[in-house]
Amino acid sequence: MHAVKRFATIIGLLTAVLVLGPNAGLAHAADASPAGDVLSLGDPAAPGQIDLYLDPLCPYSGKMVQSQGEEIGRRIESGKLHVNLRFVDFLDKYSASGTYDSRAIYASFVVADQSRSSDITWRFIREFYAKDQQPEEEGDTDLSNDQLAGLAARVDAPQSAQDLIRVGLPVAFDARAIAANNLPLLRAFPKSGVPMVVIDNQPVDGESAWLDRIPR
Is residue 6, in this structure, part of any structural domain at all? Predict the structure, then answer.
């Protein structure tokens, strides 16, 4: 009976994603949307334009989001900054589960797809990079699907997003393929570490004062 109920839940979720579409009719001032291997956050016509490369498990990516995440979010919501967020998964194999990067990337795409809100999506990403949440590289534990869904609930992501994260099926978004497609773009730069910000096709250390170069 338990298996039948779970199967029915999965079928319902797939129907919502593939047939009904994400939150039809909802509109947000700063839309978020998956665009191939990218999460598009904010107004595509914003005066500030960056590509941002992050790895969910990377402690340096976490440090950058912890220190600059609030200001990035403010500029996204004010229409000053558009972010093409490109996740990579260098450290997936160094997570306790061996799949943490992939599951966090998938969860981010699901939240963006189901909410269509840059605010919700960026706040979700900030949640899993928070000091009290981000798992350690080669640590004993990482975040389960249920815990990731709990973080989605904390930022008011739709219930549909929370349910999809819990189930964890790579339907519509194959996180490993997304990361694999972003990796050669990152490696095309002389230094290919993360976090990396790209402004006008020029790479910038994500932990630098790059925000000073973006129109306010």
Answer: no
